[in-house]
Amino acid sequence: MDDCHIQIKRGSTFSAAIRLTDEKNEAKDLTGWSYSSDLKLKAGRDTLISFLINDDDVSNGVLVLNATPEETAVLPANRSLELDLKLTDPNGKVHYTETVVVKIQKHITD
């Protein structure tokens, strides 16, 4: 997992749109689903950030992860962290996305 898919600059507002698709690469309508996403050092470790999720475009499979400058300011600099989305379908079955590697960049004043 050396590839960096998302970057967060410490002390900045963070926002990233995640588009979820089905096996045919078509947008997955997540209307009626629940979802959460945490940023961690590694899976199973303590949560560093629990993202606020904007679901205005959920019918097109788009969820937007957000974090405040206060939340990103305390992240460890120059580290690769991990996030995934936990999705619960209307029947209560839990699904997880693939893990995404997040690179934390130093703030300009660090």
Q: Tell me, what's the shape?
A: elongated
Looking at CATH, which topology would you report?
A: Immunoglobulin-like
Please trace the helix and strand order, writing H or E for each element.
EEEEEEHEEE
Domain module count: 1
Class by helix and strand content? mainly beta
Question: Quick one: CATH class?
Answer: Mainly Beta
Radius of gyration, rounded? 14 Å
**Number of beta-strand segments:** 9
Overall mean pLDDT score? 90
Structure write-up:
The protein has about 110 residues and is mostly beta strands. It is built from one helix and nine strands. The chain has one domain (about 5-105): Immunoglobulins (Immunoglobulin-like). It has one helix at about 70-75; strands spanning about 5-10, 15-20, 35-40, 45-50, 50-55, 60-65, 80-90, 95, 100-105. Strand 7 (about 80-90) and strand 8 form a beta hairpin. The two termini are about 25 Å apart. The mean pLDDT is about 90.
